[in-house]
Design brief:
304 residues; alpha/beta; Rossmann fold; 4-stranded mixed beta sheet; 30% helix
Length: 304
């Protein structure tokens, strides 16, 4: 499907979202799906409330029907009438007219947990992938992802890597993600699974990337071109190593590197910042060290 076809389908089916900026709802996993549902409620609001058309992608999971039932029940309880399951078992499915049509009509797209490598193997570079970008960037749709669906959001995706007490050279590998965000890498279940060392390992080897760690039942909500907010029960950790001094190039694999002048930002639930400063956390101005991060993650990009 060429860009003209994508643009035409987006304009034809998404007029109700004209002028919207588009949102990403990046969830650290295990979000509340049964009680207050704070994060899923916000996702539904951003997608259009009761009038939202929500498509759930379970491609990361090997128990797709079970996963779909969980979110069907949750979104139904939140009053969403139009909700559907996009089941993908092959790249042919992700290149089908039916899959593209579902994306072209969606106001909210939600990617469940599972294995991010499986998710990318099925949809990366397909017509469905392209239509998801059109949904976000042209129609201003809302794209959510939890756990594996969160890690897949960025252009550089955490593919595999163990979690130890200290960062290690060569302990983590990256792969290509969906590219809704650039120059960052996202890790999830962050505090609960003690993944700071894993994120430091990534930043040590890739200092041009900023690391984002998101706790369980916590979401980083990004409005393109505008700002961010943090929802839920935990926090978002940002690791910035662009001014870092390290001996990584001189040490052997599996050795622990020196990491000097690495910046760490902690953004607890309730944090809000905008580029304009109009919607900041009460009593706070945007700190200068966060400005570059905010500009980066909210950046509007053209169609890829």
């Amino acid at each position: 499907m060429n860009d003209m076809t994508i643009n035409e389908s987006a304009r034809a089916t998404g007029q109700e979202q004209h002028g919207r900026n588009g949102h990403l709802v990046i969830i650290g996993g295990h979000e509340d799906r049964e009680h207050g549902k704070e994060i899923l409620t916000r996702f539904v609001e951003l997608a259009g409330g009761a009038d939202a058309n929500i498509v759930v992608i379970t491609a990361a999971s090997q128990v797709a029907e079970e996963m779909w039932k969980t979110y069907d029940d949750a979104f139904g309880a939140l009053g969403v009438r139009q909700r559907s399951h996009l089941e993908l078992n092959s790249r042919q499915d992700a290149n089908s007219d039916d899959a593209v049509r579902a994306m072209a009509q969606a106001t909210g797209i939600f990617m469940t947990g599972g294995d991010q490598k499986r998710l990318l193997a099925l949809i990366g570079g397909t017509a469905l992938d392209a239509e998801m970008h059109a949904a976000l960037k042209i129609r201003g749709a809302t794209i959510g992802g939890t756990s594996a669906g969160a890690s897949a959001m960025s252009g550089h995706m955490l593919a595999q890597g163990r979690t130890d007490l200290l960062p290690e050279k060569g302990a983590v590998s990256l792969g290509a993600g969906l590219g809704f965000l650039h120059r960052v890498v996202v890790d999830q279940h962050f505090s609960e699974r003690q993944r700071l060392s894993r994120l430091l390992s990534i930043v040590a080897a890739n200092p041009y990337l900023q690391g984002i760690g998101i706790d369980e039942d916590t979401a980083l909500v990004i409005e393109r071109g505008v700002g961010i907010e943090v929802l839920g029960e935990g926090a978002v950790t940002v690791v910035d190593g662009r001014n870092m001094i390290t001996n990584l190039a001189e040490i052997k694999d599996r050795a622990t590197p020196e990491l000097i002048d690495v910046r760490l930002h902690l953004l607890p639930a309730g944090t809000r910042y905008s580029l304009s400063g109009a919607d900041a956390t009460p009593g706070q101005r945007l700190p200068a060290p966060l400005l570059d991060f905010l500009e980066n993650v909210t950046k509007r990009t053209t169609m890829s």
